[in-house]
Amino acid sequence: MPRPILPRRARAALGLLAALTVNTASVASATAAGSSSAAALPADVLDEVVVTAQRRPEAWSRVGASLSRIGPGITGVIDLTHAAEALNRAPGVLMQRGSGQESLLAIRSPVLTGAGACGAFLMLEDGFPLRPVGFCNVNQLFEADTSQAAAIEVLRGPGTALHGARAVHGVINVISPDPAAMPQTRYAATAGSDDFAGLEFLASDGRSAAWGLWRHDGGFRADSPVREAKLNLAHVTDLAGGSLRLRGAAVRLDQETAGFVRGFEAYRDPVLRRSNPNPEAFRDADALRLSGEWVREDESGARDEWRGILRRSRMEFLQHFLLGKPLERNGQQSLAVSFARTRSIDGGVEAGGLEWRVGLDAEVADTFLLEVQDGPTLEGSAIARAIRPAGRHYDYQVDVQALAAHGSVAGTLGARTDWRLSARLDRTHYAYDNRMRDGATTEDGTPCTPAPCLYSRPADRDDRFVDFTPRLDLRHRIGERAQLHFIASDGFRPPEITELYRLQRNQSVADLDSERLTALEAGWRYAASDIAAAVALFSQRKRNVILRDANGFNVTGGRTRHEGLEVELGWQAWPTLRLDVAGTYARHRYDFDAAIEGGETIVKGRDIDTAPRQLWTTTATWTPRDDWQAALEWRRVGPYFADAANTRRHPGHDVAHLRVSARPTPRWRVSLEIENLTDVRYADRADFAQGDWRYFPARGRSAFVTVVWRRE
Question: Among 316, 460, 464, 588, whose CB has the most other CB atoms within 10 angstroms?
Fold first, then answer.
């Protein structure tokens, strides 16, 4: 059995403290560099950094949680070509880039794949989920405008009582700009390697604003161009003694997708790494969101919130990674509304009193999925071809209803300790309607021979899930510059719609339960005038993990454990030089034995595949003058196993990026970004499946020049 990462006594202590999480990345957004590592800022400056983990503005120094706030970097934007550029600067986070805007994510977890992978992370925009419950997509973050966002907040570990379903391993919240804080006008143009071109605009009068972008990336691999367009609208006004904020967002993605390259270390081959084995693959998607938030708050701290959002999304893509390459179309239209009320007793927590909060969330959604294969399967063995017929494989609609109640109470223990006790109760209902013949047959009912058809369609049915998630937060201040916190929390996700109704072989019913994660964490952070430090430890246990067993059935019963250490340091070494370091050492292990699909065997205690134990980011920012900056970033992804049996090991990679920005005049800025500065050949993702290595090779050295003009 593998040795524990800490001695037994230390692990016992972690059972009480378990999981220091302090992410001083929040503070970094207040620096010119916009780094996500610990900020060397005094305590009074920390109070000015505002975060929204509780759906309301709070000084980051008063939040006892593992929260990162990533702001625009020295080039003025959060990311240029992909959200991974920013998110991978946060401790405990690994976003592996696929082709184009595709990605796979880890937050205090292994990189998760499969139908339920996206369900472990809650993706928000201004506090609103991008997708309804049960209908996420692993690539859905492209629907948010991360590049032009004011900030991205990353909450590591289970979410608060306000978040609910899918806030299992973490929460990502993309925060759009405030019209009052925007320049009057801003235009930007970018040109770069591999025929990359982009245009951005922004216009604001202080209350209303519009901003958007258009980008074309020719792709460094053959036949892999990406075109995307995003448009955002916002309006803020006073109404009935409160503030009303209206938001609109529209997104369009047209992508020609490049598939895995196969063969041991194929990503190093100068020809293979630029090839595209699947030139026919594509992904087309669009999304539309309209939201409103009304907040009224008085001097006593009493606060009422009404929130609502309408969402619509459509996606069509070729499943080039499956035999037969069927086409999938899916979509949803949904409405979510919520209400919350906050009141203080005896002056609230700051005055030594109490604060309570109650709320209700409701959501309805109409979702659909169609999978159809144009012609016969030509790949694989004779049996594999026979069980994958042409025609429709799945065609169903699922109506979703979700209702939740949540509440919290907060107070003090003495002069230096705050506490918050919260809980949430969720009820999720799926009404499934199969639009085809039930069972594992061809579209016209003909059986496959010599074995049942691969694709199995359950009969119409309803499924309900009820989940209760408590949480305890403690925060203790040590002097004026340091604090400790402790959190005990639960997270959950009901099964995704595809896990319940997109079955295979002879499985007619998937008797699944909600995945659950219990987490303990404690944290310490310190900030002085020129140095800040943070240490984090976490211990998490996940149960009812949904997987596909050796028979190809979707089943519940897996268990995993996740333990680790996170360290951050921010140091203003000289007036012109700043160093930021964010590091993670973690173990993500199976906690059960099982034979699973593909002939692999899970053994308790072994590492989960695609779970690097080490992740490091170091950034040096040089500011010789107010109008000139340069930042050199080094990123280390440690080795990881590429299969569940831990027999294939990928070495990981080291990569450096350089960013330079200059302001020749107050209105003009020119920036240069060089990705993969040393032109190292590495893989964004490595995997061993179907008896062979397969990779998504990373882009080589690439340069991008951006010119910006703005008027205040």
Answer: 588
